[in-house]
Amino acid sequence: MATASDLPVSPLAPERFPSLPKVAGMEAATHSLGLYKGKVRDDLLVVHFPDGAAAGGIFTMSSTRSDDVDRCRAALNAGGGRARVLVVNTGNSNAFTGAAGVAKNAATIASARKQSGCGEHEVFISATGVIGEPLPPHIVSGGVEQVWGRLGAPDFEKIANCIRTTDTFAKAAGETVSLNRRNVSIVGVAKGSGMIQPNMATTLNYVFTDANLGPAVCQALIARLGDLTYNCITVDSDTSTSDTLLFFATGAAGGEPVDNPDDPRLSDFIAAMHRVLLELATQIVRDGEGATKIIEITVEGAASDASAKVIACSIANSPLVKTAIAAGDANWGRVVMAVGKTAEPVERDRLSLWFGDHQVAHEGARAADYSEAKATKAVSGDQVFIRVDVGIGRGKATVWTCDLTDGYVKINGAYRS
Amino acid sequence: MATASDLPVSPLAPERFPSLPKVAGMEAATHSLGLYKGKVRDDLLVVHFPDGAAAGGIFTMSSTRSDDVDRCRAALNAGGGRARVLVVNTGNSNAFTGAAGVAKNAATIASARKQSGCGEHEVFISATGVIGEPLPPHIVSGGVEQVWGRLGAPDFEKIANCIRTTDTFAKAAGETVSLNRRNVSIVGVAKGSGMIQPNMATTLNYVFTDANLGPAVCQALIARLGDLTYNCITVDSDTSTSDTLLFFATGAAGGEPVDNPDDPRLSDFIAAMHRVLLELATQIVRDGEGATKIIEITVEGAASDASAKVIACSIANSPLVKTAIAAGDANWGRVVMAVGKTAEPVERDRLSLWFGDHQVAHEGARAADYSEAKATKAVSGDQVFIRVDVGIGRGKATVWTCDLTDGYVKINGAYRS
Q1: Which H or E element spans position A44?
Q2: What is the pLDDT of chain A when averaged over all its residues?
Q3: Active-site pick, A166, A202, A229, A239
Q4: CA dihedral for B112, B114, B117, B122, sign (positive or negative)
Q5: Looking at chain B, which residue has its C-alpha nearest residue A346?
Q6: Is the CATH number of domain A294-414 2.102.10.10?
Q7: Residues of B whose CB is below 8 A from A317
Q8: pTM, entire model
Q9: Which of A195, A320, A336 is facing B337, going by the closest CB pair?
């Protein structure tokens, strides 16, 4: 199985791992279960909230999702959004493993409860890696026991590295922001570089804050901001069976608890959390398998925001658009094709299109002052902006994707064997 | 602009161009308008039905389709399904060309009417090639005038070559069948190798018969059989702005006319026409850009046939499934992923999956007698069969696609520039 270290770092990667604030009220440890044969790397993450945390989450919509995803959703529903332990393994997704997968998760939860003394619905579990290969049930649960004595202040770089699979760089983002006149931290880690499509895009993502938020706030913020970020990215239109985005608030920064997601005191916090999620989501696009360019696509003039998003995703997922941009070819006719292939309302003869700042099409035909040189320049760098007005209404959406290169084909032809 | 001759012939191409029967009641000529700069090749096809023909057709559903498509549809609706002239050019699709495209088509139709003396709605026009580049209006119409004196018995190999763009081989199929105790011929030509997705899959396709069929029969048969063939193939999920499948019946074989599509005398004819369309449609898949394998995907046990087709197309369009098969990797977990990503009803824990004859998954988990060697063998040849039972009902569908290789990326990064 290919792992991160086999692949050259994406040319779109940030220059360095970010400097991150501390998040009070959580401890963590990483460990190697040996799930990557012939490689020494951490593949188990355990996070412990000694005084508990409020939790919220959103998950893959796949109908063949893993039992791990079902258990996280059930924990949130049945446990009222309280968390004590998070256990994540890489190297095996535990998806489509039937009874063996259920047994593995039961053992893992039992082990976490034994160590922490918490309730069944305070344990959250995730797994990522190959689909359909059952693991012996006690490998992960045994790891939880082994690692428990080593829990300590979280090293987010280690954590981000531990959850990588084909990622070519470790992904994290963080901010400090004022809430109730106290400084609070928000830190997120993410992994994902293929099988990326809303809903919800990417595989595993964990965002931690020491702000004192109630479970209803956690759930509302992660759903609302996840929809504007993770659900607006796509690499290849494929939806993982394990996609998980969890948000934990330890409350260790103290202060009055915030229990209403519409509380106006949250506005700075929400803006900061939005930036953290967008940074994580676009890092995933920057690590799209084989990517050499990040593409921001805005559709406006649509019947509704939802309609705009369908059209934007159609452009973002078109192999013909993505291969043209990979080659630096300003083949804007393919964007017109991708707009046309959805069932959404579009007025062909009022459709206008921009590559970067250059208008390439105006109301149903090539723009009068179209310049091949300017259009080509707009798709030649490693950041490409496409804007389409479909001439119907006021709906608008922005999505992010990457180009499609032979690197994608090579990585995905080699992943499993 | 890349053309057929730049590309190596697909390894999945038939060994030779088929031997085809004659179709009475039609004449044709091909010609070079010089639309492929620096290349000598035919890029204009004119077909003339001296005594007229009954016609039917199905077209792209794209909302950014070309004016050519709109005119064919309008001709069928307003003209009652009668045809005298077909004009096709390659090298420029005339899509998204606004007023210039409308002017080009008006001039072409006027020229065809002048030569043939027919009505406005008896002229059918198609164009394929780059999108959004206006052509001077008189290039194609002038070509019609030039070529008219050279019309003669159709050379289907020349015709099939004339309509190629990135196709690596000329596509045609034909049969002779008995109808009303007379031998009649069916011959079809097709072009297409990318931007292939229902509805309707591929770009340009023309099927001719000398059977004596009325317009209602032509329309009913092409719609019914097109749905079972062209609308069941996909190369890259992209839908062309020019997709056209036209069916012309000259009636020159004589005999009593058939005006009812449910006439039992049609059964052998329908079976033969189905074989011709399926052969053409799968030839398009065999010429999928960069294809090295043809993949037949059958989904059964779905809530309905329509639901089965959505799931089958999700598998067929998954870049992760297609790249794994390209590499000969039996990564069946990706098929499970692609089944799960649609919104169609699926019973995860009753889902079973076969690669060729080998059952790889049984009721929600890897099959007990799964063999990596057998599964790998099933995806190693140039024909791959995938079958999924989704455990819900009796709905069933089969679709055809090809693998995704770096050849696709190379061809589509080079097409336009």
Answers
A1: strand A44-59
A2: 92
A3: A202
A4: positive
A5: B63
A6: no
A7: 237
A8: 0.86
A9: A195
